[in-house]
Amino acid sequence: MSGLLQALQGIKVVEFGGYAAGPHVGKLLANFGAEVVHVESRSRPDGFRLQYPPFREGKPAPDNGACFAIFNDSKYGVTLDLKSPAGLELALKLVQWCDIVVENMRPGVMERLGLGYAKLREVNESVIMLSSCNMGQTGPRANTPGFGSQLTALAGICGLTGKSGGPPMLLYGPYIDFIASTMGAASVLAAIEQRRTTGLGAWIDLSQYEAGLHFIAGALVDYSETGRIAERVGNADSEAAPHGCFVCRDSNWVALSCWSDDEFGRLTALVSNSVLTADKRFNNIEGRRGSADELEALIAEWTLTLDAEEIAQLLQANGVHAYPVNTIADLFEDPQLLYRRLWHRRRHPVIGEHNYQFPGFNLAITPGDVTAPAPCLGADNETVFRNLVGLTDEEYQHYQFCKAFD
Amino acid sequence: MLSACRVVDCSDQLGWLAGRMLADLGATVIKIDPPGCRTEKPDWRAYNINKHPLPLNLDMEAGQSVLEIMLEHADVLIECAHPGSPLAAYFDPERVAARHPNLVHVSITPFGRTGPRAQWQASDIELMAAAGAMSLAGEPDGEPVRVSVPQSYSWAGAHGAVGALVALIGRTIIGRGQHVDVSAQMSVIPALAHAPTFVDLLGITPSRSGAFMTGRALDGAQFRTFWPCADGYLNFILYGGSAGLRSNEQLVAWMRDAEAPLEELATINWSTFAPTNLIQEEIDKLEAPIGNFFRGITMKNFLEEASRREMLGYPAYTVADIAVDPQLSKRDFWHDTTDPGGGKHRYCGAYVMVDGERPSLQSPKQMNSNMEHILAEFGLDPLLIGVLTNNAVEEEA
Prior knowledge:
By secondary structure, chain A is an alpha/beta fold. Helices cover 38% and strands 15% of the residues of chain A. Chain A folds into 2 domains: 12-215 and 342-401, Crotonobetainyl-coa:carnitine coa-transferase, domain 1 (Rossmann fold), CATH 3.40.50; 243-332, 2-Layer Sandwich (formyl-coa transferase, domain 3). By secondary structure, chain B is of the alpha/beta class. Helices cover 39% and strands 15% of the residues of chain B. At the A-B interface, helix 2, helix 3, helix 7, helix 8 and strand 6 of A face helix 1, helix 2, helix 6, helix 7 and strand 6 of B. Strand 12 of chain A pairs antiparallel with strand 6 (179-183) of chain B.
């Protein structure tokens, strides 16, 4: 969609599914030049369109939601009634057109719709299909439904979040969906690379649960060898002390940590608290960890005398790890994020101007872009089916008459 | 899938997962660490299995000379040199591109190679703070918390792998490699889901809510997410829409079968239930009988019954629970090895299955036995092998 040379230009993607785990794959690819078509139906739009706020003026409506928007920028949006023969015909024409199909429905749903991998290969022999679901396509619980926020609990990550003795915690939303989508994006790109050299497609079975376990892989290895069960320990760390968050004069928080005795020495020079300097327990990591509560109480006295930003600047200038705990609002003002252009403002036809976020990396020559705001429901039916798929006027009208676009 | 791809991985923990993902997907990955690196630690082994280990001191000219030969034959370089350090000067993107124009050069650093805070020091806790993730975790009136197992490193590594592959495919478009500049801070931010949109659209800043969640009701009311059960915690959320309909109906049916008091739950028509419109008092009344019911349920009981009834919700598992989950063993997820002393080691297997098969990992022993051939692929004289390789000695189970 952009005039610049992009790394993934020429790669065509069709998404069946909704929420985050599927659509975020397409967004990552679209930001680097892939042409991505997001397929919904008018009777069952993507769940993020209506079920999750925020909405423009607080009113839920298919095109009012920013939750849908931020995972679907730079894509085309079409509607197809996949349960009608005409809608299915058009879905298969899209499959013929594309290189990659991404779906995140429960196992068996694509098959029942007439869009299983074998059927897709009949119309496009070298198609690459990514099937992403909670448990994977096989296994005793393959059919268990689930959302990412909850699956994050099964994968151990929520149980590792919170204070010792307190309850587990969510990391706000469907955390594990984004692990799965990022790792899923890598897998379809690898399949494109394979197809370039062999001509072969691939069916990739991604269990979001298994993908999430890679984010606690070290703790799993440790358990298999020692029987040690990793637990939530607040902000403590096995190698650094102090290691935590401290409230500051401006009521904001700062995170800081010391990874060597020298680094701790530089911190104490700034804190200049006589107790901190004199107490020999703090001279080595074992002592600091053993008396972490007392140590952190002394540091907390100091952080209350300065603002979070001042403390972070001061500590960094003196070679100590530190950063203010950014609130979500701070992410729009953080100087490093502004420099790196995390946010791209685009005008959505209904929501108006709002921010879309860029992935975590920049490319030097083919920089990528947020090329368009998220599509309104079915906004690109004509563009996609006439210009990309190549339907004639008569054919397009026929499918309209058959209610294929409902 | 990436059998034609050769990767030189000089990363530290910030980038380990990038090379591991590429190796899972079939790339040949040489892992370079300075001599003395603590490769025996579980974290190192978890993220560097399936790579060919090669000790090399890149602070020395001799080490750099060996690396230069390898880069002539490599498709991807991954490095984590801290901006401002001598090693970062050596890995200067323009210099690397001039010498190795076809190479995809991936730098994974806390804040990216450039920018006003590029040189700031950060470990996982500072990165989770900088990305806003900590502001969303913890009790509402308490301190922000991070996940007790570092997450930002994996986020950075995963984005690094995607970046490497985007650039690798881009070589066919632009006819050369390019620099991929990964910021760990930015890589974490997608994990915050739609939280930033509340600031953007409504001027509301989401914050931490302990064992509850916000962001679903229009007036900001909270829904409980974690519930104490007989032997731990369960995650269950009163969802709306078609997904919530079945779960809520099935929970009530389960409670009815168990003769548990339903109280307010008995009055709800779940087909029209809309969490977005609820206020806190209404939510509390619905959640009270659920909480009482869950206190008598075990995690295993919940997982089996919820799965049977096709309800949304999972127990909050520990690594011990995960280790015996039959879903994982039935899918051959684990890669088990035994060392010469009989010690058992269990690693996460390749993260995807391709055409019905899980790509196999190679054990450290296989990696070493194959080293002569691998180093030759990277243009190195086999005579160097004895000097350069380390002696990891695990055997296949």
